[in-house]
Amino acid sequence: MIHQLMQRRTLLRGAGLIGAAAGMNALLPAWARSGSPGLAAKGSATLGGNDIRLIVDRTMLGVDGRAGHAVAINGTVPAPLLRLREGERVRLTVDNRLDEPTSIHWHGLLVPFEMDGVPGVSFPGIAPRSSFSYEFVLKQAGTYWYHSHSGLQEQIGHYGPLIIDPAGADPIAYDREHVLVLSDWTFLHPHTLFTRLKQEAGFWNRQKTTLAGRDGTDRMSDEDRRMFARMRMDPTDIADVTAAAYTYLLNGHSPGENWTGLFRPGERVRLRIVNAAAQTIFNLRVPGLRLTVVATDGIPVRPVEVDELQIGNAETYDLIVAPDDRAYSIVAETIDRSGMAVATLAPRLGLRAAVPPLRPRPTLGMKDMGMGGMDHAARGHGAMDMRDEARVQFPVGPGVDMIAPMPADRTGDPGIGLDQVGHRVLTYRDLVALEPRQDRRAPTRRIDIHLTGNMERFMWSMDGAQLSESPEPYRFARNERVRLRLINDTMMTHPMHLHGHFFEIVNGQGDLQPLKHTIRVLPGGYVDLDLTADAPGDWAFHCHLLYHMHAGMMRVVTVRPLDGDAA
Amino acid sequence: MTRFLIALLAAGAAAPALAQHAGHSAAAEAPPVEAHQDHAAADPACPPEHAAMGHCTPATPHGAATQAPPIGPAPAEAMAGPEHAADAVWDRAAMGASRETLRREHGDMPVSKVMIDRLEWQGRRGENGYAWDMDAWHGGDVDKLWLKSEGEGGSRLEHGEVQALWSHAIDPWFDLQLGLRQDFGSGPDRSWLAAGVEGLAPYWFEIDAAVFVSSKGEVVARAEAEYDLRITQRLILQPRAELNLSAQESAALRLGAGLSKAALGLRLRYELDRRFAPYAGVEYERAFGDTADFRRAAGERRGGWNVLMGVRAWF
Questions:
Q1: Strand, coil or helix: what is B65?
Q2: Residue ranges of region Disordered (chain B) (predicted)?
Q3: Structure ipTM
Q4: Does CATH number 2.40.160.40 belong to domain B112-314?
Q5: Is B101 near chain A, with CB under 8 Å?
Q6: What's the mean pLDDT in A344-348?
Q7: Model pTM?
């Protein structure tokens, strides 16, 4: 099977690339190999049990026949699938063979804070040429993932999927499953990517408005053009890093390498989708198939049918599809539509479906400027103060280029560019928890947290302060029930992740508010989240766009008292 | 558990028909809800945008959960316990060091850029010449060291200058720049104090304006503005204007008081790469008032058109 596959790949890539092709398949865990019959076939790189060893080391990864520098776990990108069972105690020993520190954060797992894997917050990190054992009890089930929280290692391969099977019956029924790990690969050094953004924030954007685009292809009114120009904002700044730097991967495969997942017609196929990209938000669809969303961030939701959904960095979605006897393309188009990750679902290896072309790139609008709460007539009344310091409680410095004048609740929006695509797109308001929430208390207080930045200087912060400024942590009392309002004062979508907790999206579903560990906050909008701060310790809270976090968009959350402290 | 195993087995090898009916639980059998096609609010009479403005209160099916709690500070017990939780578990010194690394790697990292904005041959009436305008910076988000240099010449160097400036961000788009300027070339080698602002004005105009005070007490000023008009993603037309002013007449500097020199240029560049672009252009440059008289007295023209060819590059 594998032999056949490699022959095919070799043919596809041409004789000169034999070495690279063979090398690459060796770097892919079995579940991520093209032609994978699904996890049930149990590849050798699916790790299970209660005592797991992970080796972090440098390696070369082949993408489209070209080799690039990667940091891999057990020699594979993505890292091995960890298949664990709810209720069990697991020990994960990490050998760091790098010449720099590393770490593994178990994204979405409810673990004691000292096992959460964030150097400088939960533990000191894993020093070069040393090892560290994580040990914890698995308190949940579902689709999760793990990744480095050190430097920019996550960009170059240090990520992998993690599935926890439920202790009892799975509330989600399926005949076969595939894990789909989305990522963005670059042959450049991640520091080069970041430096370019600092030198010229729009460096990677090759879809700016132009004079030539005034024929209509820019899709902007003159009024909006003027407004954006006056504000020194780029209406095409949808993604910081684009296909100009990235090759988008699905299970480590480029579109040309076409990862193929197999099924038998008539099966209910569960797709466990993880966005492990460093800086890319994807819009995912499988033309020809209805997608039934059955879980997000590991937690089951009431099945809801859509044709497309946006998936922010670090979000996970479980989908059920029921394919017929034909091939389908899994299309994960980037939010700025500069590129896509593509893979195939097919009943037999070798079949391929048509891949739709990239759709025209969207432009930002009034809602993204934080004027969503305003009707069209109102905004005609002269200039709005787009940086009104009286609206916030923190000092407004050079790092804050905008304060949304009239932010709207955007949980009912599907994401930038998706409100007029002619089919149904998931919104956060469509998500309804399967189980009623455990904490029925109403929140006792609300705190507003502004997501702030300066697009031109590529500065990113929360409440106007970068982590480098050592701002005060956000402090919660243990078991406090609190409402977080995340207000996006920027024109980019920020997938915000709070470690150690799930929060509920206040989306009108009452006791069935869905649980999430990572939430996309749309530009110029806000989202309300109800949180029970039940995990004592210190936790990271940050934007999961890696370069936003690296630029300072991160804070520490403290929950006290700790075990053993006097209250 | 049994159901799960059945599903797994079925997925691996067994007949799909068996699996079809083996593992479906009640939840997954329930007919899926259709997503909101129009993404309308839960309460159409009161969209959240209006609710946010206080125009209305949406009807809520599950009242308590959506009642807005007041904004408030953390309760006292949130301040209990150690400053850093991890210090209670791990080695304090190691935690301290990793916290410092965390702080250093999340914001304000030092970055550098070298920009050769204009490096050009100038076709002039009479003697042809050359000009350059470049800068380099290094630093964090707010404070940077800037070096700037510009100058021009023909068969010999007419004027050259270098500046070393401390640059401090004063708002999202502008930096205040303070430092020294040193002239060289065929004129007097003056040393100056420099104070200016550089940044991005509304409608994307790049502005650089500075006042200079020489060690001899002369005061001059210069303002430059550039605009990048993208014709396509790679073809960019750049109008550029420069004004030079002098507070006094100076025979040594060959300057009259008031507006001394102005230039208006148009450069069309093609970005082979975002960082490397050859260009061609034209520029009209002339002296005014007494400055023009100084030029004429030296047998030079007051000003005129130049044809330009050059490169813009940065790294």
A1: helix
A2: 25-83
A3: 0.91
A4: yes
A5: yes
A6: 96
A7: 0.90
